[in-house]
Amino acid sequence: MPLHLLRVSINLSRCDQGKATLAQTVTSLNDQVTELQKVLVGIGYIRELTDKSSDHVLSFGEKLSAIVINGALRDLGLRTEAFLGGRCRIVTDDHFDEAKPLVSITGQSQL
Q1: CB of 57 within 8 A of CB of 39?
Q2: Which structural domain range is residue 36 located in?
Q3: Is 80 part of any domain?
């Protein structure tokens, strides 16, 4: 299935309450899917899936989940923000596919 079919399409006119939250969530999801598409095209060009690029692809599941959960919590009236990528500054070891947080280093980072 072409990746462009995975784009989120929601009829915003059907949802009066939480329209802004929904629009923001859909925009964030579309941004991540667009970025994932670029990554997959790049992997296709070089015809090689390294451990590092595999982890990068897998990270999109976490990012998309964070966006959806953030949107649901905001729709409930909670003040939340989804932290994607390096915004949390969680430092991990180099064990691809099973990275562990380096708590001593992460604890020194500030948001």
Answers
A1: yes
A2: 3-85
A3: yes
